[in-house]
Design goal:
Length: 50
């Protein structure tokens, strides 16, 4: 999925759905890591998609 996103082969809705699924799984494994990970990915996405 990552390669498809980088190349623009998925819609923003598909990307958001996939990320929500990953965050639910991450929250179940390690709840304390969810917020820092979310902020990191938002920062990366924000700098790459301008």
């Amino acid at each position: 999925m990552g390669a498809k996103i980088a190349r623009g082969h998925v819609t923003e809705e598909e990307y958001n759905t996939a990320m929500n699924t990953l965050f639910v799984k991450l929250h179940m494994l390690d709840p304390q890591s969810v917020i820092p990970t979310f902020h990191l990915l938002n920062h990366i996405r924000g700098t790459c998609w301008k």
